[in-house]
Amino acid sequence: MIDPLDGSSNIDVNVSVGTIFSIYRRVTPAGTPVTLEDFLQKGRAQVAAGYVIYGTSTMIVYTTGKGVNGFTLNPAIGTFYLSHPNMRFPEIGNIYSVNEGNYVHFPQGVKDYIKYCQKEEGNRPYTSRYIGSLVSDFHRNLIKGGIYLYPNTSKNPNGKLRLLYECNPIAFLAEQAGGKSSDGTINTLDIEPTELHQRVPFYCGNKEMVEQLEAFLA
């Protein structure tokens, strides 16, 4: 499965965008037509996932279930080099990424968590950073430490991001990098898909930060 152009609204303003991909083993017999059943698998069944980010440099970041590695393109010879081996979330994050323009439509638990992020205490307030491209926001938080939030809202009660080709691949990467993803209640990778374009709330990043958010939602 593939999201060929994540963050497409950023193209005309020259902001980083990406491509997300997710690979599964088919469950129907080889040699027969592929069916919907082959796609409606839990995220835990992924055998590989990753993204390409098109920014100041072009990188491919992917996992096959044995950690996360990042490769940077050398455009002079068209070759990707291993530039970021064994990528891991920093143990402590201090960035939260959310479109706060939708704040009034967020669930109360998310509103409370955002106020928690802004409160001056310990290593808080956290820094707010939001690009509007899932790949770009996740990539930054993976390297610097943070949490990405795309809640359900009163306008989009099921959330807006697609489970199969946005949330699951990013969730697989997050877990392989020592992080966590959730719909606010259960792990993203454990959600049973029911339709190809299914939407879910999505919270992803440092494990401790995601668990703190889940506590607010509970």
CATH topology group of the largest domain: D-Maltodextrin-Binding Protein, domain 2
- Overall mean pLDDT stands at 97
Specify the overall morphology. globular
Biggest beta sheet attributes: 6 strands, antiparallel
Relative strand content:
25-35%
Question: Any idea what the CATH architecture of the largest domain is?
Answer: 3-Layer(aba) Sandwich
List unreliable stretches of 5+ residues: none
Encode the helix/strand succession as letters. EEEEEEEHEHEEHEEEH
Distance between the termini: 32 Å
Structure write-up:
By secondary structure, the protein is α+β, with helices and mostly antiparallel strands. The protein folds into two domains: 2-84, Fructose-1,6-Bisphosphatase, Chain A, domain 1, CATH 3.30.540.10; 95-217, D-Maltodextrin-Binding Protein, domain 2 (3-Layer(aba) Sandwich), CATH 3.40.190.80. The chain contains four helices and 13 strands. The protein has a six-stranded antiparallel beta sheet with strand order 1-2-3-4-5-6, with helices on one face. Helix 1 crosses helix 4.
